């Protein structure tokens, strides 16, 4: 008997609008684990009476428990959305009611309905995702991760092995959907990568990076509410599955963006997160494994939906796309190092961000920006302005030393790096070249050349940026003796951002 058959009376009660005192149901949404009925100002969520190898909603008692957990957990990130869990009771007249004193036959979660089109998965198709929104989302995730309770218990590698094997079992259930050779290659790759990184997974657990987090953080579970990105609908049915590495939680969002070919957006969030979470720099090596497992989850979930709806070929195509992405995420990619230098206002960061998403493996290069690292060393947010003391010779030396160390560490974890700094002194350019030589990676230096007037105009146009350079500083830098740039590729930085980025791509041989 199907879930709908088992709950047929309850579903009919909701679908008819009788449950809502005459307010019509505007829309019904079915997922693999829930049915949601939307009225004018509310969303009413029923758990479907289903059982999979990773969840069990087969009894009313189980559905009540998981809805109450869902209410509690989602109030962490979206307190205004989640209102209450109500019993669906049978009255003396034999009719069903929400609430009431009769025996409960099922349970429903009441939520405030946000406007249609508010999901980021919808916004991205309508108008795209602005950089400002992406940065606010990254900041929101960082704040949530910082406050999340730390897991004390088994090792990180033991926990992650369970996640891998659970997904291997889920793949087996839909084995006839996929090419068996691809599945076998993926399973072997996931297991091999988990063993290869076992020590790092354990180390991160010791560091407190395994926490009770969202667990299902992708664009369809994030809404724009009152101007702010608001994650909701976290993984509520199994605390063990949601108690994960912070970077594994982030990886679902990055994978979703990457799958949608929004590589720049994924890279922007990846770098903003690491800029604010210094403790996660040492976990970069895990990103291919984390992205691969996230894509694997989407592959078998979409495959199960395809099996239920054989008349919709797009579901099968999406499942196969996710499986291919999971495999691709595990492919080794040799890292490279690009240094982008130039005086203040020459457009270094704009170019670095344009190139970072196309460099190396997903989710693109680690972008190390001296202006951001200066704020990190000072213990303040990237957009906080610093006084002149932070730019004294000794402070700047420390900033560059930190940049070199982080670049070497990221390259050592097989992640490509773009180093964004002025690099006005020959010794600074020699030092970043030495990092590439030490790590045995291809290294290219790009110097952005533009006149003082353009640089001053660009600096004056900045708002909310990590750079503290103003027009006076930009003009004063014109007197710097940069010295020979024979080993660097000097690029005309005049014109629009796309034009400069295309010049850089041609200079790098990218076409």
Quaternary state reads: single chain
CATH fold description of the largest domain: Aminoglycoside 3'-phosphotransferase, Chain: A, domain 2
Please give the number of β-strands.
17
N-to-C CA distance: 57 Å
Helical amount among residues, as a percent range? Answer: 40-55%
Strand order of the largest sheet: 1-2-3-8-6-7
> Could you describe the largest sheet, including whether it forms a barrel?
6 strands, antiparallel
How does CATH name the architecture of the largest domain?
A: Alpha-Beta Complex
Helical stretch tally:
20
| Rg | 26 Å
pLDDT < 50 runs, ≥5 residues: none
Text of the CATH class of the largest domain = Alpha Beta
Shape: elongated
Structural class: alpha/beta
State which percent range the strand residues make up.
15-25%
Number of domains: 3
| CATH H level, superfamily name of the largest domain | Aminoglycoside phosphotransferase (APH), C-terminal lobe
Instruction: Give the overall average pLDDT.
Output: 94
Structural write-up:
It is a single chain. This protein has 511 residues and is an alpha/beta fold. The protein has three domains: 3-112, Phosphorylase Kinase, domain 1 (2-Layer Sandwich), CATH 3.30.200; 120-329, Aminoglycoside phosphotransferase (APH), C-terminal lobe (Aminoglycoside 3'-phosphotransferase, Chain: A, domain 2); 336-507, P-loop containing nucleotide triphosphate hydrolases (Rossmann fold), CATH 3.40.50.300. It is built from 20 helices and 17 strands. It has a six-stranded antiparallel beta sheet with strand order 1-2-3-8-6-7. The radius of gyration is 26 Å and the shape is elongated. 42% of the residues are buried. The model has no long low-confidence stretch (mean pLDDT 94).
